[in-house]
Amino acid sequence: MILPILAYGDPVLRKKGEEITSEYPKLDVLIENMFDTMYGARGIGLAAPQIGAPIRLFIVDATPFDDDETLSEAEREFVSDFKRVFINAKIIEESGDEWIFNEGCLSIPDVNEDVFRQPKITMEYYDEKFKKHTETFDGIVARIIQHEYDHIEGILFTDKLSALKKRLIKGKLANISKGNIDVSYRMRFPMAKKKR
């Protein structure tokens, strides 16, 4: 089932996610709904807070990057089947020289900005079967994971922008929170006027 994605300004997006156990009610249904929602919005990642669940869960599907000519052959091969569920994730280490990449977010439609992130991360997480993993990721996959990980920490990519960039997009962000934007997927806007 496709769920509405919370828009910029919703307080749930600012909450640090709670850890969950394998007993979390209908976890398999939630994960399936998250994938449906992400694909319906043509996204590559989605965190549970974005659909109103303030828990430490996010999903990633990097396969749309498998034909990206800017990636090396090895990177394209890696992303071609990279689809994962991350539960109770914790970044242990970030390393390397920061690199810039233009990011967007399903909760902040039509806003894309350059964000600096380190290229390599090591993290612990549980998969959908609650099997524990410790893995190192780099390149575009690390970037997608870092973006989604920020969501479970209550951080948005716009928080990483310079003061000047934040001022320049302030009006756009206000319009998003009020629902004054056209989007092709279901959204819930925190300050949208109720229709009578």
Write up what this structure looks like.
The protein has 196 residues and is α+β, with helices and mostly antiparallel strands. The radius of gyration is 16 Å and the shape is globular. It has one domain: Peptide Deformylase, CATH 3.90.45.10. 26% of the residues lie in helices and 29% in strands. The strands form three sheets. A five-stranded antiparallel β-sheet has the order 2-3-4-7-8, sandwiched between helices. The protein contains four helices and nine strands. The model has no long low-confidence stretch (mean pLDDT 94).
Rough outline: globular
Number of strands: 9
**Tally of separate helices:** 4
Tell me the strand percentage band.
25-35%
Mean pLDDT: 94
For this structure, what is the CATH homologous superfamily? Peptide deformylase
First CA to last CA: what distance?
27 Å
Q: Which structural class do the helices and strands define?
A: alpha+beta
Largest sheet: 5 strands, antiparallel
CATH class: Alpha Beta
Number of domains: 1
Taking pLDDT < 50 over at least 5 consecutive residues as the criterion, the unreliable ranges are none
The succession of helices and strands, N to C, reads: EHEEHEEEEEHHE
As a whole number of angstroms, the C-alpha radius of gyration is: 16 Å
Strand order in the largest sheet: 2-3-4-7-8
Keywords:
196 residues; alpha+beta; Peptide Deformylase; 5-stranded antiparallel β-sheet; 9 strands; globular
